[in-house]
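Researcher: Next entry: Acyltransferase (Nonomuraea helvata).
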Amino acid sequence: MSLVRRAVGTLIHRAYGAIRRAGAISPLSPAGYRFRRLGDGVSIAFPPGAIFGEQWIEIGDHTLIGERVSLSCGMMPGVDLGPDSILRVGHGCSIGRGSHIVAHQSVDIGDDVFTGPYVYITDQNHVYDDPDVPIGRQWPRNSPVSIGSGSWLGAGAIILPGTTLGRQCVVAAGAVVRGTFPDHSVVAGVPARLVRGYSPELGWHAPPIPLPLDRRATAS
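Model: Predicted structure:
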């Protein structure tokens, strides 16, 4: 009985491996032709997440997209989003499994950006301006997102609309990021804040702690 179970298990794993290889999206696969651009060596693992708006998505050479990663442009399939690309992923990137990149105006991810699993990146937020209208029925707001080349985003990080990360930044696992951070920033927390930076003079260092308001007046 153990030999039969072992043989069946081997066949199942081999079959699933063949399905994953055949189902991966590449520049030469039928699904790959729907994208605005898929660079050489790109692979989107099978099974993918929700993918639509491919004609507004560009992915650079040798980028690897993990399984169950959602890549979407717009609210739903079939909407005309204009002449320009909206979601751009550079070359040599690796997007961890289960991640979601949701673009409506502009999400720009530089070269050699790596993410852990289950990262969420979006350029759109729900609003709550009208207290009498359900939040889900109020028209959302967009604000572009830019992630600099060479950056690393830890598992479960959330990048919110209006975020700009410089080059070679580190986002800690589980951080919720909004705002502008310079090159070589390490950001962590909810909401995320700068916890380390880099300069040629000081190397990696913690940022100065601002004085409380009452002490600032005294110091001046």
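Model: Note for the record: The chain has one domain: 2-219.
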